[in-house]
Amino acid sequence: MQEQRHDPVLTDEHRVECSGDLVEQHEHRRGDQCPGDRYPLLLVDRVLEWEPGKRIVALKNVSVNEPMFQGHFPGDPVMPAVLQIEAMAQTGAIMLMTNPDNKGLVPYFMSMDKARFRRPIRPGDQMRIEVETLRVRSRMAACLARVTVEGQLCAEAEIRSVLIDRANP
Hints:
There is one protein chain. By secondary structure, the protein is mainly β. It has one domain: Roll (Thiol Ester Dehydrase, Chain A). It has 2 helices and 9 strands. The strands form 2 sheets. Strands 1-4-5-7-8-9-6 form a 7-stranded antiparallel β-sheet, with helices on one face. The chain has a two-stranded antiparallel sheet with strand order 2-3. Strand 7 (126-137) and strand 8 (140-149) form a beta hairpin. The longest helix has 17 residues, at 81-97.
């Protein structure tokens, strides 16, 4: 017998709009969820699904007007792989920071493993970023992240973060 999966339905109070600095999410402000990530480095536009501490799905709309495309590559714009990893890390950070167990802690990117890039991401693409927690031990978190565009896998990686006290970075 196949196990059924029940994803939570998010109400408006659970949605995170990441394009603004002061969007509320469970009484947290956007700035509390992703410290330091603002335009032009903010690479998450919206959170679609969210299970605190377990799983998150976010979107990034890729626009030709983004500064990265001025030099990567002129005439053939492709989103740099390092920014794809950053988008996955930011999505994971939102998931970790919205977990009540991590109140007062800030996730810092520590390492990545098994990174694979399978399809270029270009202006006009909508990145669907899915991150799931593999394990959290003490203040270390490991997540599996995937980016798809129109159902095609573009990038994937295991990302590790360390959770640091906000007062002592």
